[in-house]
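Project standup — Tuesday

K.O.: blocked on the structure for the chain from last sprint. Re-posting the sequence here as requested.
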Amino acid sequence: MGKLTIYREETAAFTAVSNLFIDEYMTQANDAQLKVYLYLLRTFQANQATSISEMADQFNHTEKDIMRALRYWEKKELLALDYDGDKNLSAIHLLTPGNGAAGTIPTKPAGITPLSSVRQTKETAAQAPAEKPSYSADDLKAFCSNSEAETLLFAVEQYIGKPLSVSDMKTILFIYDRLGFSADLIDYLVQYCVGREKRSFRYIEKVALEWAEMHIATPAQAKSLASRYDKNVYAVMKALGKSSAPTAKEVSFIDRWIKEWDFSLPVIEAACERTVLAVDKHRFEYADGILASWRRAHVHTVEDIRAADTAYQKNRPQPSRLPSAANQFNQFPQREYDFDALEKELLRN
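H.V.: unblocked you, prediction finished:
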């Protein structure tokens, strides 16, 4: 019997979603990002076109919210964005989780200019931190007119305890606009910093950049990150004179000292104290060198440190002692003078 041809009378009433997306990507995305991605899947599988404005209307979001969600999924390599010569979004390429191309959805952003005037490659974007643009008064006005942003700025003022300056609001706009943080994540970010007695917007921006580098996208992820930094981490940061949030590299140093090398906090603090007295830069590397040498010498307690210091002082080569002034003088042949004869000789002259 020959092969059979199977017909379908109507379009399938479901949208297929990758299990890999559900297992590895869905839990990290916020509400807006999930809506946009699932809507794109539904649109593609139904062979339909869409636009930024249509998606904004569909989910009652702003067009910038939609663009932020698209850029988020582009960073996750689940889609790629194409722009025309005027820097307007022209097409969306859906990518199968696992780096396989799925197809293209043409779209028009209805006059929305991408936030980045020059599109970076994935490699460049991964290496270079987002640059803070010079926002105009119109940019700030448009941001503040957003009801979500208005609520966010009011909440930030309450946390900080004072009215926000134009510079402060531009920092929030940068975090919201360029770093792609949701309002909920910015709300938690400010609470996190204020909880550590840090109300400077320079500090808030620095923490935001660190979170962006670590791909923190939701308050739940930020809380999980913070919970991993127990009191020992902050004690070490303080001992090294660091007031900022620990970076992933700094945490890796501390984890090695505590978990792998099994040093107690007092021993690590002793190494940090010597580090601060010795260097101003690269303190983690310097402290790591001290602790590595102690580990090789089987020094693991404060008493071991004292014993090692005592042994070092005993075995330390002593500098050669210079003879005293009297001894130096006595090394020369001594001469005896007849002062009466000298006086007569002076009087004759």
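K.O.: great, moving the ticket to review. The first strand starts at residue 50 and ends at 51. The domain at 19-118 is CATH 1.10.10 (Arc Repressor Mutant, subunit A).
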